[in-house]
Specification:
heterodimer, A: alpha/beta, 13% strand, B: alpha/beta, Four Helix Bundle (Hemerythrin (Met), subunit A), Rossmann fold, 434 Repressor (Amino-terminal Domain), 3 domains, 19 helices, elongated
């Protein structure tokens, strides 16, 4: 997909603000002590601090140690390059089967409470609008107070129609009607908002399956995308979230939201590696433009900010 | 990760089966695994480092309890320190003159609005008259959200157009509370990033104008390493008085709670455990500690080992009783054990051959009776406890006075204690089964 989307300066800044600092820190360390135990311990801490997780950290550091030893390398720049290679490799996931070019192209957005689904949907709608697509939003979060109102406000700002029922209505029915409306109004993209749910709630996860099933009554290939919204501040539970949501409805990607804070979202590495779910978009603020396609290199650089 | 962690711990336990005092090697080997467990639970790595240094200092040289391995002993100490660090639960401070202003702050999506509604409901149950305040003018439909919740719960909501700055809204709300005799004002502020200087300044202004007596940080239980920085910033800018941990009904281990506690030192006040308005619970440090440590099986093992230890003590006492060396001191120790374990009948039931006698003892020993007996024994000198025969009239008067009982009760206890000792002798020689005397209170 060709990005017609211009990266905001804020996004660039937030992703690369301290690109140099990692190298500086490593170099300082090497100059003092060479690549010794303290060096590796520091590297471990940097990864842990970015929420990369114990298991991934141990694997990565172990691999680098072996490689550094093989190459007899104590050069900080070399180790940094190796580290980046390793992390980039981990973000690579096996290619998903090509997505059918259906109309409407159905995007289901899921996630735990407060992860930033509705805001991400607005940005995603804006993103598709920038590609001259006609976008329709389905307010299938019928549970949370005023969730429908929130989506309507965004719909107005973005210029996308919103299909909604009453609060408390069946989310499957909303999704069904929204698809029909999208079809009738010749919308290119239908984005379905869902209620936030903790992945431990069995019934709510079943409800998600039902929404997908209902959409398939209209179009057996729907949903064409199922995106999990993950708050960048999330720690190790992110992996459990991705696992559970993937089980309920196959995920095609992650939206890493709220990356404009100090959190790095390192758990996405484990999600890509272990579950094969790729990072697709990042959200970096409350504005519609604070959103971009995922760039692995930027992300890896940002991890050590 | 979970499984492999338990396995690893198991391996450590096997390796270290020595007894005696905890050596540095024991402690370090066990703490390596604990460190991984805490990091997996999202406790900030710096907090982990400080915490484990503290544990290490306390653990090295500590006597390993019988029936525990050194590694288990370390985990026991870790658990105790964790509970201590998490601190005692605290209620919302409603001292002084109403209206009491409570301000909720936190990142976007941490659950402030839901928590505000839950708090309002709980306060109303405690005969307070809460007023919810929609101080989030930024997020689309945030005001509608809290109004909807207010309507559902029948709790009034103070709101103003989004053009009004939040500090003004909050100040007006406090005014309204004063006029309308509301006792608690709950300020639901907008979610914001801790590094957003402009919005943090707005929060400072809200605090200045509304003068809250509680500023509560709402923290999502699944927060990762950044919890420390978030809490630190909010604390520096607005001075926190407490924490509320939300989404505890998920399966996040909640290490963020420990991080935030360590940085701010303010107490955890509530846990959010569901989407329903009544899903707000008190916080229990031991439960949260074992959740964070994630070593439930190991902790159960340690508990069991401790129980065994108590049983061993009880058996020792019972055997002493049999040898008729039974003194008032043993008796007191038994009373203390009984408090933990159940009636003396059970205690005797553990001794082979005594189960019959145990059955004949009245089971309904009340705390009140037990306290009196304990008081009497506590008022004896050590010598008196070991040699009850020296208890003459004046000693007995002194004991009665000291324990707040009567000489008669002291007499009764002493004579029946002697009878009990004699009975032991008879039992030893195989006579007198089933003639166990009933001592006062038993």
């Amino acid at each position: 997909m060709v990005s017609l989307f211009k990266r905001s300066n804020q996004l660039k800044a937030s992703l690369t603000k301290t690109r140099a600092s990692f190298l500086t820190r490593l170099t300082a360390l090497v100059a003092k002590t060479e690549v010794n135990e303290a060096f590796w311990a520091e590297l471990e801490e940097m990864l842990i601090a970015a929420d990369v997780g114990v298991e991934t950290t141990i694997q990565v550091v172990e691999k680098l140690r072996v490689r550094a030893e093989q190459e007899h390398s104590r050069d900080a720049a070399r180790v940094e390059a190796m580290l980046k290679d390793e992390l980039l490799a981990r973000l690579q996931v096996p290619a998903l089967p090509p997505r059918p070019s259906a109309t409407p192209y159905v995007v289901l957005v899921v996630g735990v409470n407060g992860s930033g689904k509705t805001t991400s949907i607005a940005k995603l709608a804006h993103y598709y609008k920038a590609q001259e697509k006609r976008v329709l939003l389905a307010a299938a979060d019928t549970f949370r107070a005023a969730a429908i109102d929130q989506l309507k406000v965004w719909g107005e700002r973005v210029g996308a129609e919103v299909v909604a029922h009453q609060p408390g209505a069946d989310p499957g029915a909303v999704a069904f009607d929204a698809w029909q409306a999208a079809r009738a109004r010749r919308a290119d993209v239908l984005i379905v908002d869902t209620a936030g749910r903790l992945q431990t709630k069995f019934n709510l996860m079943k409800e998600l399956e039902k929404i997908a099933r209902v959409l398939q009554k209209n179009d057996p290939t729907a949903p064409h995308e199922t995106l999990l919204v993950l708050d960048a501040v999330t720690g190790q539970n992110g992996l459990q979230q991705a696992r559970a949501f993937k089980q309920a409805t196959p995920l095609t990607g992650l939206i890493l939201a709220k990356l404009d804070g100090t959190a790095k979202g390192g758990i996405a590495l484990a999600i890509a590696q272990e579950l094969g779910v790729p990072l697709r978009f990042v959200g970096t603020g409350e504005g519609l433009d604070d959103f971009a396609e995922f760039d692995a290199r930027e992300f890896v650089d940002g991890l050590f900010g | 990760m979970f499984d492999s962690l338990s396995e690893k711990l198991g391996a450590v336990f096997k390796k270290l089966s020595g007894k005696g005092k905890l050596s540095e090697a024991d402690v370090d080997a066990a703490l390596r695994e604990v460190r991984l467990a805490l990091l997996e639970a999202d406790v900030n790595f710096k907090v982990v480092r400080e915490f484990l240094a503290r544990v290490r200092e306390r653990a090295i040289g500590e006597e390993v309890m019988r029936s525990l391995s050194p590694a288990q002993m370390v985990v026991k100490i870790v658990n105790e320190e964790l509970i201590k660090t998490l601190g005692e639960p605290a209620k919302i401070d409603l001292s002084g003159e109403p209206p009491h202003v409570v301000m909720l702050v936190g990142l976007q999506g941490c659950g402030k609005t839901t928590t505000a509604a839950k708090l309002a409901l709980q306060l109303r149950k405690h005969q307070q008259k809460p007023l919810l305040v929609a101080a989030d003018t930024r997020r689309p439909a945030a005001i509608q959200q809290i109004q909807t919740l207010g309507k559902q719960l029948d709790i009034p909501v103070h709101s103003e157009p989004i053009s009004v700055p939040p500090p003004t809204i909050c100040a007006n709300a406090v005014e309204r509370a004063r006029d309308g005799a509301y006792s608690v004002v709950l300020l639901d502020t907008a979610g914001r990033l801790h590094i957003d200087d402009e919005l943090m300044r707005e929060l400072e202004e809200v605090k200045q104008k509304a003068k809250p007596q509680e500023v509560l940080l709402v923290v999502d239980a699944m927060t990762g390493q950044e919890a420390v920085r978030v809490a630190d910033e909010f604390n520096k800018r607005v001075g926190l008085t407490g924490l509320i941990l939300t989404k505890v009904d998920g399966d996040a281990r909640g290490g963020a709670a420990l991080s935030v506690r360590s940085v701010t030192g303010v107490p955890i006040k509530y846990l959010g455990v569901g989407e329903k308005p009544d899903a707000l619970e008190a916080f229990f440090p031991d439960r949260l500690a074992s959740r964070i440590l994630g070593m439930g099986d190991v902790l159960t093992l340690i508990e069991k080992a401790q129980e065994t230890l108590d049983q061993e003590k009880a058996q020792q006492a019972a055997e002493k009783l049999l040898r008729a060396q039974f003194t008032f001191e043993d008796f007191l120790e038994q009373l203390q054990q009984i408090k933990k374990m159940g009636p003396v009948s059970q205690l005797l039931g553990m001794v082979p051959g005594f189960s019959q006698i145990a059955k004949e003892l009245p089971a309904d020993v009340t705390d009140q009776q037990m306290k009196r007996v304990e008081a009497i024994i506590n008022s004896m000198t050590r010598e008196e406890r070991q040699h009850p025969e020296i208890l003459n009239g004046s000693r007995r008067r002194r004991i009665a006075l000291g324990s707040g009982t009567s000489v008669q009760e002291v007499n009764q206890l002493v004579s029946q204690f002697k009878q009990m000792q004699r009975m032991m002798q008879q039992l030893k020689s195989g006579r007198g089964r089933g003639l166990f005397p009933v001592i006062p209170g038993f």
